[in-house]
Design a protein that fits this description.
Elements lengths: L2 H21 L3 H10 L17 H7 L6 H11 L18 H11 L5
Helix pairs in contact: 4-5
C-alpha cells in the first residue's frame, strides 16, 4: 500500500469515526441538550418559536458543505440577520463538542 492509499484510508476512518460519534445523538438526547443549554426557549424542532425551527435550519443549509462549521460558530458566538432582526445570544458556556453534536443532528432533520 503506497503513502497516498494509506492517507486516504486514514482519512476515511476518521470520517467514519466522526459520523459514528454523531449518529449516537437521538431525538431524546437532542431534546435534553436543547433544554439543558437553553436552545428550546427559542427554537422548536419543527416549529418556529422566537428563532427558526430546526427543520427550517436544516432545509436552509442542506446543500452547504460548511454548514456544521458555520452554524457551530453562530451558536457559539451568537448572531443576527439571517432569520430576521432578533439576535441569537452567544452560547459561551456550552461546550464546542455539544454544539457540534447538536448542529450535526439538526442538519439531519427533514420536513
Amino acid at each position: 500500500m503506497n503513502a497516498k492509499a494509506v492517507a486516504v484510508s486514514i482519512a476515511g476512518l476518521a470520517l467514519f469515526a466522526s459520523g459514528a460519534a454523531h449518529a449516537v445523538l437521538d431525538k431524546a438526547k437532542a431534546e435534553a441538550m436543547m433544554k439543558k443549554d437553553g436552545c428550546a426557549a427559542c427554537h422548536g424542532i419543527d416549529k418556529k418559536i422566537i428563532g427558526p425551527s430546526y427543520v427550517d435550519v436544516a432545509a436552509k443549509y442542506k446543500n452547504d458543505k460548511n454548514a456544521v462549521a458555520t452554524l457551530s460558530k453562530k451558536v457559539k458566538e451568537g448572531g443576527s440577520g439571517v432569520w430576521g432582526p432578533i439576535p441569537m445570544p452567544p452560547n459561551t458556556a456550552t461546550s464546542q463538542a455539544d454544539i457540534t453534536e447538536l448542529v450535526t443532528w439538526i442538519l439531519t432533520l427533514k420536513k
